[in-house]
Specification:
This protein is mostly helical. The chain has one domain. About 70% of the residues lie in helices and about 0% in strands. The chain has 6 helices and 2 strands; from the N terminus they run ββαααααα. The chain has a two-stranded antiparallel ribbon with strand order 1-2. α1 crosses α3 and α2 packs across α3. The protein is elongated. About 5% of the residues have low confidence.
């Protein structure tokens, strides 16, 4: 209860130095979650929508997610010093949120438009083409397993895991690149 109130000190160069933790607010380097979460959520939503269109399949939506998260964060918090490490964290957050939104959109689309059968048929066709190219008995046995409902579920789960990891990696990369480019721009 008895915290002493300190007043700013004045040095011989007539520069006022405030006491406490506000000594260098122009160089905030810690990630401020109250600004980061809305920025990452908006960037993740944009990335998820981009990934639903054909151009997003090349990973552009994922890279854009990280870069947009950094841009939105800087817009909300202009005094922040966004290092490439912080940019990568913002990118990873936007990638995780973007992947979640993308997975929800994809699942809803499959339920609404009943495209699950088409996906299953495409997977079975790819498995049959692989089976025709291989003469190895163990490979044939594995491909037969993948044709079963359990095998198709395994392939879908592995596909989701790979997509989630790709979202995290590419969004982190986009965030780190955007932060590095913005720092270079700020220095000049």
């Amino acid at each position: 209860m008895g915290d002493a109130i300190t007043s700013p000190t004045i040095d011989s160069g007539l520069e006022i130095k405030p006491s406490g933790s506000y000594t260098n607010t122009s160089q905030i380097t810690a990630l401020q979650w109250s600004y980061a979460l809305p920025a990452a959520a908006l960037a993740g939503l944009i990335a998820a929508v981009m990934m639903l269109i054909p151009g997003g399949a090349f990973g552009l939506g994922m890279l854009a997610s990280g870069a947009l998260a950094v841009l939105f964060y800087r817009r909300r918090n202009p005094v922040a010093n966004v290092t490439p490490g912080i940019g990568a964290r913002l990118g990873a957050l936007s990638g995780a949120l973007g992947f979640g939104i993308f997975a929800i959109f994809t699942a809803a689309g499959m339920l609404i438009f009943r495209t699950g059968g088409q996906l299953r048929d495409a997977l079975l066709q790819a498995i049959q083409q692989s089976a025709a190219r291989s003469s190895d008995p163990q490979a044939q046995q594995m491909l037969e397993y993948l044709k079963s409902p359990q095998g198709l579920a395994l392939m879908m789960a592995l596909g989701l895991i790979v997509m989630g990891v790709a979202f995290l990696i590419f969004s982190s990369l986009g965030g780190a690149l955007a932060a590095a480019l913005l720092r270079r721009k700020d220095r000049h």
